[in-house]
Amino acid sequence: MIYLMLFWAFFKVGAFSFGGGYAMIPLIEKEIIDIHHWLPMQEFLDILAISQMTPGPIAINSATFVGYKVAGFWGSVMATLGVTAPSFLVILILALLILKYRHLPLLDAFFKGVRPAVIALIVQAAYSVGRSSFSGVKDVILALAVFVGLYKLKMNPLIIIALSAAAGIIMY
Fold first, then answer.
1. Is 171:137 a contact under the CB 8 Å cutoff?
2. Same domain, yes or no, for 6 and 90?
3. pTM for the predicted model, two decimal places
4. Helices (H), 17-156
5. How far apart (Å, rounded) are the C-alpha atoms in residues 171 and 111?
6. What's the CA gap between 50 and 66, in Å, rounded?
7. How far apart are CA 146 and CA 160, in angstroms?
8. How far apart are the first and last CA of the chain?
9. 9 and 91: one domain?
10. Which own/partner contact pairs does 144-152 have at CB distance under 8 Å and 24+ positions apart?
11. What is the CA radius of gyration of the chain?
């Protein structure tokens, strides 16, 4: 029964929160502390701190850690499935609808309009990150070397990351 309760609690969090992982925190808190009383506030705050330090989305990390704390391995599985299921289902339904109606001129026009917007968002993110990442000539040289390694020499990205780490240790 606890596994279904964990799944449902985190399913509601995944289904009714918008704005990313940080927007989910109040809903997770309400479910975990106020409604089900699974954890005290201090333990929940510890889980949030760990969730922020570990790789991956904070909502999924939080669900996994809370599920594990409440009901062990299978609790973490059910909580993680619960928080990710709504997004998965929405994307699955949208994909099926797009496949069914892909021949419609309206849908084609929609995607033609969305492509430039997506490119603009990616360029803006790259500019924003790049602006704060480059603090000198060494940074630009390293970035150009990575670009050449990836696109001209077709090097494996893992090798590029390792070489960049070594260059960072040497240069800085």
1. no
2. yes
3. 0.63
4. 21-29, 41-53, 58-101, 105-133, 137-147
5. 44
6. 11
7. 7
8. 54
9. yes
10. none
11. 22
Specify whether 152 is located in the same domain as 84. Answer: no
- Residue 8 CB burial class (10 angstroms; 0-12, 13-18, ≥19): middle
Per-residue pLDDT of the chain (172 residues; tens, 9 = 90+): 999 999 999 999 999 877 677 778 888 989 999 999 999 998 998 888 888 888 888 889 999 999 999 999 999 999 999 999 999 999 999 999 988 988 889 988 988 888 888 888 788 877 876 777 778 888 889 989 999 999 999 999 899 989 988 998 998 8
- The encoded tokens of residue 117 equal 């917007």
- Does residue 69 contact residue 51 with C-beta atoms inside 8 Å? no
| Domain total of the chain | 2
Which amino acid does the sequence have at 34? D
